[in-house]
């Protein structure tokens, strides 16, 4: 029998396989692991404040007392207990939700995939902020949806630009399925959508017959403890809300959710069952125990104090070390700041010398579906220590200053 070569297999791939590319964040991940490398790249939460002993006890108790259930298949929608706890969490952002409208997923990444699968045919348009979450771009590309990005400013998505983009696309006869937006402490820009723009954006989408996918993994991570009003709370019939325990508890447990109107939620469940049968029961039970049996809000507040302090350290270091003409956003929560280089400086030219100097980041182009962001980059301040962040920014500034302008 002749051997089947890799190229024979790849020649048989479906068209959608061309949409899957290595994530730029994952690519720099390997570089991040090098000794003495300071990583401003990955948006990992700081788990150092988690009560590991308590969590270990909870896991032990779950297996010992409810092992038959925890290690078995479970409901396709998720456990009722966790759905109810999620309703309580979302109430903190003004959302009044029924637990049966919640589909639990393996992280909000899966929720993104499900919503896109359910709504988008190849060639349908998804609107998104420019820049937007690189992982969402990967999902959308894999499902052959076209992403059109709408400009932002320091108050977030610009309503007039959204309206203009919708008008242009409609005039071209394009089908727009939804606006994908990260209103709070956006990944990658760090920007939060201003309160007065929320109603405008909800109204524009409603009038244009476009749904909204509100992705909100960072909403509870404000530096001052305040919460923003969810878009979902403004128009529950037209917004699908994506939440996650990854940033407020643990990304490793892979538990997120979608809140959607009844018919959509039911179809999401069928799509979820076709993918994973059911979310991990053990993970859900551990999240349930943690949320109901531990003062998780205090943990979040403590983690936010750390993120806030690290963000301040980065802001001060940027002021000190970045060359004239550089600008950056000033986040009020979350994990990221977004840097724009002075005219003539290119991020592509900066990356390798920066790695050589011992600092790595994600280039801005990763956050755009079309060529853009070539003079921009994302800095994550969530994971490295204050000292490492300051040193990382210093290395970045020194490398950038030495870089010839193009
Ligand atoms: N959306 C955004 C904006 C994110 O930043 C992330 C994680 N980096 C996700 C979704 C996916 O998170 P999860 O771990 O819940 O899948």
Keywords for this structure?
406 residues, alpha/beta, Aspartate Aminotransferase, domain 1, Aspartate Aminotransferase, domain 2, 2 domains, eight-stranded mixed beta sheet, four-stranded antiparallel beta sheet, 14 helices, 14 strands, 44% helix, globular, binds 4'-deoxy-4'-aminopyridoxal-5'-phosphate
Quick structural overview:
The chain has helices at residues 6-11, 24-32, 52-70, 80-91, 107-119, 134-142, 159-171, 195-208, 231-234, 262-276, 281-293, 296-321, 347-356, 386-402, and strands spanning 38-39, 102-105, 125-130, 146-153, 156-157, 176-181, 211-215, 239-244, 256-259, 327-328, 336-340, 359-360, 362-363, 376-380.
Fold and architecture overview:
This protein has 2 domains: 10-50 and 298-401, Aspartate Aminotransferase, domain 1 (Alpha-Beta Complex); 73-293, Type I PLP-dependent aspartate aminotransferase-like (Major domain) (Aspartate Aminotransferase, domain 2), CATH 3.40.640. The protein is 44% helix and 15% strand. The chain has helices at 6-11, 24-32, 52-70, 80-91, 107-119, 134-142, 159-171, 195-208, 231-234, 262-276, 281-293, 296-321, 347-356, 386-402, and strands at 38-39, 102-105, 125-130, 146-153, 156-157, 176-181, 211-215, 239-244, 256-259, 327-328, 336-340, 359-360, 362-363, 376-380. The strands form 3 sheets. An 8-stranded mixed sheet has the order 2-9-8-7-6-3-4-5, with helices on both faces. It has a 4-stranded antiparallel sheet with strand order 10-11-14-13. A two-stranded parallel ribbon has the order 1-12. Helix 8 (195-208) links the parallel strand 6 (176-181) and strand 7. It is globular and about 60 Å long. 43% of the residues are buried. The model has no long low-confidence stretch (mean pLDDT 96).
């Amino acid at each position: 029998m002749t051997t089947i070569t890799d190229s024979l297999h790849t020649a048989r791939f479906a068209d959608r396989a061309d949409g899957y590319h290595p994530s730029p964040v994952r690519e720099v991940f390997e570089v991040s692991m090098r000794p003495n490398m300071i990583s401003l790249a990955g948006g990992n939460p700081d788990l150092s404040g988690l009560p590991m002993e308590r969590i270990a006890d909870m896991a032990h108790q779950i297996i010992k007392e409810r092992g038959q259930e925890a290690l078995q298949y479970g409901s396709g929608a998720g456990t009722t207990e966790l759905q109810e706890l999620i309703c309580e969490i979302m109430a903190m952002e003004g959302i009044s939700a029924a637990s049966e409208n919640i589909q639990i997923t393996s992280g909000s990444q899966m929720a993104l995939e499900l919503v896109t699968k359910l709504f988008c045919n190849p060639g349908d348009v998804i609107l998104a902020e420019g820049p937007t979450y690189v992982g969402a771009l990967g999902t959308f590309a894999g499902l052959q949806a076209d992403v059109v990005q709408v400009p932002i400013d320091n108050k977030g998505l610009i309503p007039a630009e959204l309206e203009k983009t919708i008008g242009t696309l409609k005039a071209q006869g394009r089908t727009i399925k939804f606006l994908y937006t990260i209103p709070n402490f956006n990944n990658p820009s760090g920007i939060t959508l201003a309160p007065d723009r929320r109603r405008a954006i909800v109204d524009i989408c409603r009038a244009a017959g476009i749904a909204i996918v509100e992705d909100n993994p960072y909403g509870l991570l404000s530096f001052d403890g305040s919460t923003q009003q969810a878009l979902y709370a403004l128009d529950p019939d037209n917004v699908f809300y994506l939440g996650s325990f990854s940033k407020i508890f643990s990304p490793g447990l892979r538990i997120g959710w979608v809140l959607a109107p009844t018919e959509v939620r039911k179809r999401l469940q069928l799509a979820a069952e076709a993918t994973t049968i059911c979310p991990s029961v053990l993970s859900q039970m551990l999240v349930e125990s943690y949320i109901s049996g531990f003062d998780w809000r205090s943990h979040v507040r403590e983690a936010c104090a750390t993120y806030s302090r690290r963000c301040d350290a980065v802001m001060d270091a940027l002021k000190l070390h970045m060359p004239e003409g550089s600008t950056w956003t000033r986040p009020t929560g979350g994990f990221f700041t977004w840097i724009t280089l002075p005219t003539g400086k290119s991020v592509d030219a900066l990356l390798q010398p920066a790695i050589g100097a011992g600092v790595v980041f994600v280039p801005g182009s990763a956050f755009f579906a079309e060529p853009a962001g070539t003079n921009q980059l994302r800095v994550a301040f969530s994971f490295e220590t204050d000292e490492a962040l300051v040193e990382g920014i210093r290395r970045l500034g020194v490398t950038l200053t030495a870089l010839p302008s193009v």
